[in-house]
C-alpha cells in the first residue's frame, strides 16, 4: 500500500454515493475514496475519518447530516451510532430503504464478481401470528430439565412477546434468538465497538427477542469470557458462559507465533451452563430438534423454516433419488430432502462439527434415507462414488470456493441449491458455477438480519 496523507480525525463535507458491501456508502474527497457509515445515498454529511492507512481509501462515519434522505428515520438502536458498535448498520433507514440498499449491494457484487447483470429484490421474511412461545409445526410442546444454579434457570419468555399483526411488515426489532456477547476486564457483558476490541456494555440493541437480555447487565461474569444467549422455540432461555481463550504467545512475529495465536483463538473452550439446559429445542416443518445452545442455528426466528421451504420447493426430488446436503449442520435440509426421496432414496449429509452431526442424527433417526457424517466437505465429495440428482449447500460466510465447487460440479448433479450469507462470497461462487456450465434458474434474497447490512441469498442452478 502506497504511503499517503493521514486524514484521521478530519471531518470533510461529502456527498454520499452508492452503498458498498459492509454497511457504508461510498464518497469521494480530494481524489480519495471514503467508506462512510451511518449515511444514506444522496445525503450531504460531515464525515469524521476514523481509520486511514494511507492508501486510496479511508474509513469514516457521518457525524452531521446536512441534507437528509427522505428514507432517513430516527434510529432505533442506541448502541450502533458513530463511535458505537457494528450491530445495526442501517437502524436509521426505513425497512424498505434497507432492503433496497441490500439489493443494490448484491446486484453490484454479482455484476463485478460473477460478471452477471440481473435484478434482485430482497424479501422480508414471513412472520408468525403468534408470540415467541409458540413454535412452528404441529408436534406437542416438549421441555427438557433445566440445569445450573442460577435462580432464572427456568426463565421462560412471555407468551405474548413480539406478537405480529397478520399482513404487517416484518418487525425490525425482536427478531434475533441467538446472541453472543463478550465480557470486559471488569466482568461486564457487552459487544465490541466497531472494528475495535473495546467492549461497549450498553445492551439496549433492539435485535434480541423480548426478554433475552433480562438480568445480563446486573451480574458479574468471568473477565475475558463470552456469553451465548439462546432463546429456543419453546421460549426457554439458555445462557452459556464460554471460558476465555488460552493466552497466545505475547511476543514473536514469525509464522509459528502467528499460527499459535490463531490456534489459541479457535481452540475448543470450556462451557458452563448458567441458565436453561444448554440444549435448545427447535422446530422446522413440524420436526423437533434439540441442539447445543452454542452451536449453529439461524439467528432469525423464522429463517430456518423459510429456507427449508425454498429448498424443498427447488429440490423437487423423485422417490428413490439421491441427494447431498453439504455443510448440513443438524440436517434441517436433509430432513426435507428425505421427505421427497422416501425410504428408498439416499440423502447424504456432511458437516465438520461432530456435535451438530450427532444432534442431526438424533432428530432424523426415523428417516432411513438420511446418513449424516462428520468430515471436511471437499474430502467427503472426493470419496463419493454415486452421483446425486440434487445438491444443497449452505457454506459458512467465506463461501464454498473452488476447492468445493470444482469437484461438486464435476459430479454433474442436475440441480444445485446454494445458500450464502455474504454477497461477495456468494457472487464469487455464482461465477464459479457459471464457469462450470451451470445457469441460475432462480435467485431469491431475504432480509434475515433487519437493520444490519447482512442479507441471505439462495440460488437454484441447473446444468446449461
Automatic annotation (TrEMBL):
GO term, biological process aspect, one: methylation
Top EC group: transferase
Keywords: Methyltransferase, S-adenosyl-L-methionine, Transferase
SUPFAM superfamilies named among the record's database cross-references: Nucleic acid-binding proteins, S-adenosyl-L-methionine-dependent methyltransferases
Bilayer-crossing regions: none
InterPro entries: NA-bd_OB-fold, SAM-dependent_MTases_sf, TRAM_dom, U5_MeTrfase_fam
Region spans: Disordered: 132-156
MF annotations from Gene Ontology: methyltransferase activity
Gene3D superfamilies linked to this entry: 2.40.50.1070, Nucleic acid-binding proteins, Vaccinia Virus protein VP39
Positions contributing to S-adenosyl-L-methionine binding: 298, 327, 351, 394
Active-site positions on this chain: 421 (nucleophile)
Residues in TRAM domain copies: 5-64
EC annotation from Swiss-Prot or TrEMBL: 2.1.1.-
Similarity comment: family membership: Belongs to the class I-like SAM-binding methyltransferase superfamily. RNA M5U methyltransferase family.
Protein name: Class I SAM-dependent RNA methyltransferase
Source organism: Nocardia elegans
High-level lineage: Bacteria, Bacillati, Actinomycetota, Actinomycetes, Mycobacteriales
Amino acid at each position: 500500500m502506497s504511503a499517503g496523507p493521514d486524514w484521521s480525525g478530519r471531518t470533510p463535507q461529502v456527498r454520499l454515493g452508492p452503498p458498498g458491501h459492509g454497511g457504508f456508502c461510498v464518497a469521494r474527497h480530494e481524489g480519495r475514496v471514503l467508506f462512510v457509515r451511518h449515511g444514506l445515498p444522496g445525503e450531504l454529511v460531515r464525515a469524521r475519518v476514523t481509520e486511514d492507512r494511507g492508501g486510496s481509501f479511508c474509513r469514516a462515519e457521518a457525524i452531521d447530516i446536512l441534507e437528509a434522505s427522505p428514507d432517513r428515520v430516527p434510529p432505533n438502536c442506541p448502541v450502533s451510532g458513530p463511535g458505537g458498535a457494528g450491530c445495526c448498520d442501517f437502524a436509521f433507514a426505513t425497512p424498505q430503504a434497507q432492503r433496497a440498499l441490500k439489493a443494490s449491494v448484491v446486484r453490484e457484487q454479482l455484476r463485478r464478481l460473477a460478471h452477471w447483470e440481473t435484478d434482485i429484490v430482497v424479501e422480508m421474511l414471513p412472520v408468525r401470528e403468534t408470540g415467541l412461545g409458540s413454535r412452528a409445526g404441529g408436534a406437542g410442546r416438549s421441555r427438557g430439565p433445566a440445569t445450573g444454579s442460577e435462580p432464572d434457570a427456568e426463565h421462560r419468555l412471555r407468551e405474548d412477546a413480539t406478537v405480529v399483526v397478520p399482513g404487517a411488515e416484518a418487525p425490525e426489532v425482536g427478531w434475533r434468538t441467538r446472541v453472543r456477547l463478550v465480557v470486559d476486564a471488569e466482568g461486564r457483558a457487552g459487544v465490541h465497538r466497531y472494528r475495535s476490541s473495546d467492549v461497549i456494555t450498553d445492551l439496549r440493541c433492539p435485535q434480541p427477542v423480548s426478554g433475552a437480555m433480562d438480568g445480563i447487565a446486573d451480574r458479574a461474569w468471568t473477565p475475558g469470557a463470552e456469553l451465548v444467549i439462546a432463546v429456543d422455540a419453546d421460549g426457554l432461555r439458555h445462557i452459556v458462559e464460554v471460558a476465555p481463550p488460552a493466552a497466545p504467545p505475547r511476543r514473536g512475529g514469525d509464522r509459528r507465533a502467528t499460527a499459535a495465536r490463531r490456534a489459541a483463538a479457535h481452540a475448543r473452550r470450556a462451557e458452563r451452563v448458567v441458565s436453561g439446559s444448554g440444549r435448545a429445542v427447535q422446530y422446522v416443518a413440524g420436526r423437533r430438534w434439540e441442539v447445543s445452545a452454542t452451536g449453529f442455528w439461524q439467528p432469525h426466528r423464522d429463517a430456518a423454516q423459510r429456507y427449508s421451504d425454498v429448498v424443498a420447493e427447488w429440490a423437487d426430488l423423485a422417490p428413490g433419488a439421491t441427494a447431498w446436503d453439504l455443510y448440513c449442520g443438524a440436517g434441517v435440509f436433509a430432513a426435507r430432502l428425505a421427505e421427497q426421496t422416501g425410504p428408498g432414496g439416499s440423502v447424504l449429509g456432511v458437516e465438520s462439527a461432530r456435535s451438530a452431526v450427532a444432534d442431526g442424527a438424533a432428530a432424523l433417526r426415523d428417516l432411513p434415507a438420511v446418513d449424516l457424517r462428520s468430515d471436511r466437505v471437499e474430502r467427503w465429495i472426493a470419496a463419493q462414488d454415486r452421483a446425486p440428482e440434487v445438491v444443497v449447500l449452505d457454506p459458512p460466510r467465506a463461501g464454498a470456493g473452488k476447492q468445493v465447487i470444482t469437484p461438486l460440479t464435476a459430479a454433474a448433479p442436475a440441480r444445485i441449491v446454494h445458500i450464502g450469507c455474504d454477497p461477495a462470497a456468494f457472487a464469487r461462487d455464482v461465477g464459479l458455477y457459471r464457469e462450470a456450465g451451470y445457469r441460475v434458474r432462480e435467485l431469491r434474497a431475504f432480509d434475515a438480519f433487519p437493520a444490519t447490512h447482512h442479507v441471505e441469498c439462495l440460488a437454484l442452478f441447473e446444468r446449461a
